[in-house]
Amino acid sequence: MAAGLIAGAAVAAGAYAGGAALLSGSVAEGTTVHGVDIGGLGADEAGARLAEGLGPVASAAFKVQAGGKARTVDPAAAGLGLDVPATVEGLAGYTLDPAMLWTRLAGGGEAPPVLTVDRAKLDAAVAAVVPKLEKDPAEGSLEFRGTEPVLTAPVPGVDIDPEAAADAIAAGWFGATGPVALPVGETAPLVPAAAFEDAASGQAEPLVAGGITVTADSLSAELSPAVLAANASFKAAGGKVSMVLDNKGLAAALVEANPAMGSTAKDARIVLSGGRPTVVASENGTGTDTADLAAKVLEASSTERRTVSLRRVATEPDLTTGEAEALGVDEVVVEFSTPYPTYDTVRTKNLVAGARKLNGLVVMPGQTFSLQQALGPVTTANGFHESGVVVDGFSSNAVGGGLSQISTQMFNIGFLAGMDDIEHQPHSRWFDRYPAGREATLWEGQIDMKWKNNTDYAVMIQAWVAEGRVHSRLWGTKVWDVKTTTSEHYNLTNPTTVYNTAEDCVPESGGQKGFTVTVTRSRSSAAQTLPAETLRWTYRPWNKVVCGPEPKDG
């Protein structure tokens, strides 16, 4: 009996295995893999069709997305692939699994492809792409625009867990119809939005709710909401937002609102008197103690009275008599003069006006002297007149004609005193009243003349027009031993005839050759010797100028 049962079981098992074998070697009818129909095909044919149909899908670059940004990933470089043989084996290979056998017997359906993942390569690809998708939080801000507090809310950053990102890519990359969404987290800003909202309602709005009255003894002034807002800023740190008021700015606004709130102390002054510099003594006075003005304004802005009380105290000048005397403006460092054409009375007026604006001007240690700034706008309203100038090599007329001689004067007293040459430009052609290569022109808004006081002493400019010459002195304390040399004129060029069709053309007889000249300056002091400087300039010839168009040949 037992032997019979065993024999029967063996027969049944053999039949089952034989049936399984019959169902192997080809894919069940109706089977598709990612839309590719391989039903009824043998293993080799199914593999070929899958390679043809799904190979491009497996090799196509895809996008990953996080926080509104996307990047492209190459599947091969990321270690992602399609295993065609394994896919076919699962659908047509020998199996004793009843469920699989039933599927093959009854007919297949959509089957998933077998995908491969090289985790090391995928992790490396994720490590490369994640920083491009992550986003730092955008910190918030609070500021006044006019008297209106304007809040910009902070925005959380985007944070990506690399492991979770790799899992999401591995699960969703193949055949994705859109970017693969990576799981993201948020990075909180350093200061939350609530802190900015609290600062806006609790600090900014009360500050500009009205003016603040400041008193000092019998004096008073009001700081308007506009002034308060202009001197307020906001600092975000430690999870909080604090309003900061500019004490110096508020103090200046206080004096502007009521000049009597300022100091009555008088600075020492260095003036020209009797033809030489003299120190006018400083004077002590009284002023408003504004050391705690910002703190008191901040406190008063949250009260109904909105009033700040300050004290008047004894004040000293910013520049005392002793400090002015220590500036050392007491000897002539350089004196320089050039002749001018006395027949041109309008040009002479410009020379006189320019000299007056410079006479007595003090240049402090480390300060840069700018001729344009010292003269102010070159306009008739500022005391200048229209006279002769040179424009593009031609004589013409413009307001301020002649001021180039003032520029030459100022350049030379600075250059010969050892000051640093910051900016200057010689004329396009040489006027023999000036030292060749050591002169400077001026054209408002385009060409300035600047030098820097590189000494520890102040210097004063003295300038005047007399006896057919423009005179300049630089008073101070002699620091530099200056030596200059000027080369012979070389690279001579002959004048030619040129034609000028401008309406204000001035005919010229010409005749003077152009040339190049080199000026060298050396400077030494008790403390140091500076490298020699070389100035090289090429002057155009004085061409014959004929007004009108150039005649045509023939």
Automatic annotation (TrEMBL):
Keywords: Signal
Alphabetized Pfam families for the sequence: PG_binding_4, VanW
Domain of life according to the entry: Bacteria
InterPro entries found in the cross-reference section: Glycopeptide_resist_protein, Vancomycin_resist_VanW, YoaR-like_PG-bd
Keyword Signal attached: yes
Transmembrane segments: none
Range of residues in the leader sequence: 1-17
Protein name: Vanomycin resistance protein VanB
Residue ranges occupied by any YoaR-like putative peptidoglycan binding domain in the UniProt entry: 110-171, 239-306
